[in-house]
Amino acid sequence: MNSDVLLSNQKSWNQAAPRFYGRNPLPEYGPLAPKEDELNLLGDVTDCKVLEIGCGSGHSLLYMDERQAAELWGLDLSTVQIESATRLLADCRVPVHLFESPMEKDPGLPHGYFDLVYSVFAIGWTVDLYQTLAHVHRYLKPGGIFVFSWEHPLHNRFTHLDGNLMLTKSYLEEGAYKHEAWTETAIMQQFRVSTYLNVCIQSGFSIERVIEDVSLSDEDKEKHAKGWYNVEKAAAVPTTLIIKCRKAQA
User: Fold this and answer.
1) Peptide bond into 102 cis (omega under 30)
2) Which residues contact 144 (CB under 8 A, 6 or more apart)?
3) Band of the pLDDT at 226, cuts 50, 70, 90?
4) Can you give the residue ranges of every domain in the chain?
5) Does the N-terminal or the C-terminal CB of the chain have fewer CB atoms within 10 Å?
6) 187-202 confidence digits (pLDDT tens)
C-alpha cells in the first residue's frame, strides 16, 4: 500500500471538500450517466444495512435514509468529509456509523454483515483495487450486492478539441496518474474495464450488470454545460462505468 499517495490524497480532499459538497450523490452515479431511478440497481433498500465506500459529505447516505435503510455506515479518507457527513446525518432516523479511513484498510467494520455496499465515483482513488474489493467482499452478507461507479476508463484517454476527438493516451496503460483538473495534487488510478471485471471475479463476486450508457437529457446538458465532463465528448465516449455484482450465497 502506498502510504505517501494516501496522505497526499487525504490532504487534497481536505482542501477540496467544500468544492465537492453534495455534488452528484445518489440517485446519480456520475456526470451525464443514467440515474438509480432509471437503473434500479439497488432495489428496495428498506430495512437494509448499507455501507458506502468513499461517503464524502454524506448525501448518498442521506438518500438511503430517505429510502428507509435500517443502518447507515460510511468510510472516507478525508477528515473534512467525515466531519461534513457527521453534521449532515445528525438527524437521521436510524443509526449512523462513520469511519475516517482509506478504503484499502478495514477500520473495524463487521464482516458478513451488510446487505448492500456501494461506491459512487470513489473507487478510482484506491491505491490497491484488489485489497479494496477483498474488504468489500468480507463486509457483505452472502448474497449481498456491491454496486460501484467510476469515470469510464476511456474517457480521459480522449481529448475534445475544436469539435474533434483525439486519442491522447493508450487505453492499455494502467496505474497511477495525476488528474489535470485538480489544483491540489490528486493521484487517481487508471484501469481497463476488463481489470475491474476480473478483480471483481477474483474477489469472489459474480457480475450482474455493466453499464456504460450516457444520459443527454436537457437537464443533464444544462447541468454540465460548463463542466469538466462536456456533452460533446460524452456523446461519443461514456463518462461513467457502473458495475453491479453479488457475493455468492453461502
Assistant:
1) no
2) 114, 115, 116, 117, 246, 247
3) low
4) 3-152+172-228+242-247
5) C
6) 999 999 999 999 999 9
- Runs of H (alpha helix) within 32-109: 36-39, 59-66, 79-88
CA distance 202 to 200: 6
Tell me the CA distances in angstroms from 96 to 75, 89, 90, 121, 207, one per residue in order: 11, 7, 8, 21, 29
The identity of residue 28, as a single letter, is E
CA distances from 34 to 30, 118, 177 (A): 8, 16, 27
Q: Is the pLDDT of residue 61 over 80?
A: yes
**What pLDDT, on a 0 to 100 scale, did the predictor assign at position 224?**
67
User: Which cell numbers in the block locate residue 89?
Assistant: 446525518
The pLDDT value given to residue 219? 77
Please tell me whether residue 186 adopts helix, strand or coil conformation.
coil
Burial class of residue 190, CB neighbours in 10 A (0-12, 13-18, 19+): middle
Summarize pLDDT for 201-218 with one digit per residue, the tens.
999 999 999 999 999 877
Q: Tell if the pTM clears 0.90, that is, is over it.
A: yes
Q: What is the DSSP letter of 124?
A: G
Fold of the CATH domain 3-152+172-228+242-247? Rossmann fold (3.40.50)
CA triple 73-136-172, angle to 5 deg = 125
CA atoms within 13 A on the CB side of 166: 7
- Is residue 114 scored above 90 in pLDDT? yes
Average confidence score pLDDT of the chain: 93
